[in-house]
Amino acid sequence: MIIDVHAHVYARPILSRPDRPDLTFLSVEQQLRRMDEKGVDMAVVLPLNSAEAPAERQSPGEVLTICEQHPDRLIPFLDLDPRRPDWRDRSHFVWALELYQAAGFKGIGEMTTRLPFDHPKMMAFFGACEQVGFPVTFHTSPPEVVTYGIIDELGFPRFEKVLRTFPGLTFFGHSASFWSELSGDVTAATKEGYPNGPVVPGGTLVRLFRTYPNLCGDLSAGSGFNALTRDPSFTYEFVDEFQDRLMLGLDHTAVDLDFQHIEWLTAQRDAGHIRSAVLEKILWRNANRLIGLQLE
What we know:
- By secondary structure, the chain is α/β, with parallel strands linked by helices.
- The protein has one domain (3-291): Metal-dependent hydrolases (TIM Barrel, Alpha-Beta Barrel), CATH 3.20.20.
- The protein contains 11 helices and 13 strands.
- The chain has helices at residues 28-38, 60-69, 90-103, 120-132, 157-165, 176-179, 204-211, 221-229, 232-241, 261-270, 276-291; strands at residues 3-7, 9-10, 16-17, 20-24, 26-27, 42-45, 74-76, 108-111, 136-141, 150-151, 171-174, 215-218, 246-247.
- The strands form 4 sheets. Strands 8, 9, 10, 11, 12 and 13 form a 6-stranded parallel sheet that branches.
- Helix 3 packs across helix 4 (120-132).
């Protein structure tokens, strides 16, 4: 069994990617074909609905319809922008999330809203997610960069406040700015990047993983793959220590992408660096438990 916790799938993608005018995000057919090619059994569909996200917006109805057409392959997540003005406090968000949960959604993400983690609207939204029991997949980036993603400075002071305030809310961390904080030598200038070389002790992310059991890792995209492969000796220890909170993700946003997470992790298992039981958790068991899929 393999579960990909990070996919973007459209019923009818129209707009091309900003960086590749010849490519769109994946259609349902393209996504299922790629899953078959990679041996992926199920994938979490993450819409991108903040104003800043570089993608077409998706209604919850589109996502749910896509997933209901392939219930054995696709898992629906929901993305709401907390800046909606008539949703002013936690009760408004709870009302909406409970309706979406009853319709079949399993979690929140990919959150890319350009607000600080501890903005009052974000805190109200996170409180509602904790109350309803939705895990949250997020993309984060620093305030200095004009981009998408929840805002936090070097060292994650705002995100740590959120982790501490909502201990019952499970977070799936993702993005270059998230995984770069594994290393103690990351700076504000290198946070939004793909650092090379050994992981230096003292990284904020390692401390947060050790302190807050509600923090989990989405290993998707080039950022997650770089985190895995930049310093294998560190990776083997990190994966073993946090084996119950790391999950495979791919994030194939175009047909010409072919991330090698599965192949690399399997090779490390075959070489004896990662135990088979640990790899099984990363490939599907953790996602099954943390999302509440109840698969055998």
